[in-house]
Design goal:
Layout lengths: L1 H43 L6 E3 L3 H7 L6 H14 L3 E3 H13 L4 H13 L8 E3 H8 L8 H8 L10 E3 H10 L4
């Protein structure tokens, strides 16, 4: 009976150790993420007083790799209208960042959404998009890209033999795996 108790006690200790390891790993990852966000915020802190100019908010959010979908844009608008400040303290921005992260979609949801959007450019349902047609659209509408940004993004694309069309499903997987958007 004593051996059985000791065996259960050892299992219990192992389970506790495993739980403690998971908790410590989670805290470490959380701290690393907080440090990363803080460092990026410092890049936008022009006056070195732990504030962000409200005009730089969108660029900061993009720099943190958060996709600007309609829901996130609404969260940002609500944040700006409730703050009504030219300078946003880091601590207040961290609240906004947390809201945006909580709103973040899974990779599968993002992939489905992007495929649906890219299908618009694939009128013949071939799985490929004409790069010139796509360039005109992505550099002209919405969150416009400049020539360099577009070329950098398209460096991830897999082109057909003519180099005029690219496989957008593979492109989407690549950019999501690289956390480009």
């Amino acid at each position: 009976m004593t051996e059985n108790y000791n065996s259960n006690s050892n299992n219990s200790n192992e389970e506790e150790d495993e739980e403690n390891l998971k908790e410590n790993t989670s805290k470490k990852n959380s701290n690393e993420n907080e440090n990363y966000v803080y460092e990026i915020c410092q890049l936008f802190d022009k006056e070195n007083n732990e504030t962000i100019d409200s005009n730089d908010l969108i660029d900061l959010i993009k720099a943190l790799g958060i996709m600007l979908n309609d829901e996130n844009i609404q969260i940002i608008k609500n944040f700006i209208s409730s703050n009504q400040k030219e300078k946003i303290p880091f601590k207040e921005f961290f609240d906004l960042y947390d809201n945006l992260i909580l709103n973040k979609k899974s990779k599968e949801e993002e992939e489905k959404e992007l495929i649906s959007a890219f299908e618009f450019f694939d009128g013949e349902n071939t799985g490929y998009i004409d790069v010139n047609y796509f360039k005109k659209a992505i550099c002209s509408f919405g969150n416009k890209l400049n020539e360099n940004e577009f070329n950098e993004l398209m460096g991830k694309a897999i082109f057909d033999k003519t180099n005029k069309n690219f496989n957008y499903k593979e492109f989407i997987k690549t950019i999501l795996d690289d956390d480009i958007i």
